[in-house]
Amino acid sequence: MRLALVLCSTLVAALPARAESRIFVIAANADGYGVDRCLAAGEACGTALATAYCRARDFEHAVSFRKVARAEVTGTLPATTCSGSCDDYVAIECER
User: Fold this and answer.
1) Which DSSP helix (H) or strand (E) runs through 9?
2) What pLDDT, on the 0 to 100 scale, is given for residue 94?
3) Are 39 and 30 in contact (CB under 8 A)?
4) Quick one: which of 83, 67, 92, 74 has its CA closest to 29?
5) Please, what are the averages of pLDDT over each run of 10 residues along the chain (96 residues)?
6) Burial 69-91 (b: 16+ CB within 10 A, else e)
């Protein structure tokens, strides 16, 4: 019985932990984030910006980020005041 318990404990400990992830969709013209300059445009600062965005929402890091068209987004879009194009959005996938 003890051997079975030790084996089960070992197997459970050996299983990879599943990380929690979430995708945030934000307007490319969102104030204060530089999304239009870094993420939507694919600039080098995009990784740092995406990670900072994730950390501000209690996630560890950004897994990916990309520009998305309004037509790709399902559900409710964030309210924005359009100073440029209202059809530019960025999806940031964050992971804990």
Assistant:
1) helix 2-14
2) 97
3) no
4) 83
5) 50 63 85 69 79 94 87 65 63 93
6) eeeeeeeeeeebeeeeeeebbbb
Query: Does some domain include residue 18?
Result: no
Hey, what are 51's tokens? 């990670």
pTM beyond 0.70: no
Which residues form the domain of 35? 27-95
Does any domain span residue 42? yes
Residue 71 in tokens: 């037509």
> CA-CA distance, 37 to 34, in Å (whole number)?
5
Q: What is the count of structural domains for the chain?
A: 1
Quote the tokens at residue 1: 């019985």
Quick one: CA torsion of 8, 13, 15, 19, rounded to 10 degrees? 140
Q: What is the C-alpha to C-alpha distance for residues 21 and 17, in angstroms, rounded to an integer?
A: 12
Would you call 1 exposed, middle or buried from its count of C-beta atoms within 10 A (0-12, 13-18, 19+)?
A: exposed
